[in-house]
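Filed under: proteins

Residues; backbone shape codes:
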Amino acid sequence: MIDRIEEILKGMLSDPSVAVRLAASAALDRLRGKKSVSSYLRVLGTGSLEERVRVVFSAQEIGGTEGTTILLAALSDKEQEVRGAAVRALESCLTGAVLEAMVARLPGEEGVVLGNLLEALGKSRRTELAPVIEGYLDHPDPEVRAKAIHAVARVTESAGWEKVLAHAADRDETVRAATARALGEWSAG
């Protein structure tokens, strides 16, 4: 089937409509990317930092199961830049498997990547993640605490709001500002 799709897209590259040619070209690029998953995974294992970051952005463009496979592999990269970019790219496909992989990465992360993970988990709006995210409300890094507060506000049920309110008087202004923003997420429903 993939060969047939590729042939049709190649034919569409000569369509009289510019919009059709552009769409066919973009689709052909994504299709070729999907056929090259193993190459992308090899680059993640052996490429330079810049190449590995480019792989993350390519995987985001590829999308689908193939792109997600590459992005999940990038979550285990040795460099924070690659892992952080992978988390951001995965925010658009927060499936059960992706959320599970993100939760598994939490204990080994710190700083920006940990904040990105918490933010992504919050964007899922999955209430079952509240206890996991709440564990980072008292993290020593104020940036991480701030991300955790906002994430908790997105996933918590009524009882969890007391934990958000408790940070309104935090010693760090970043955390207090995050608390104020989080309180804007409150809903009676």
Notes: The longest helix spans residues 18-35. The chain has a mean pLDDT of 92. The CA atoms of residues 111 and 140 lie 10 Å apart. The domain at 36-93 is CATH 1.25.10.10 (Leucine-rich Repeat Variant).
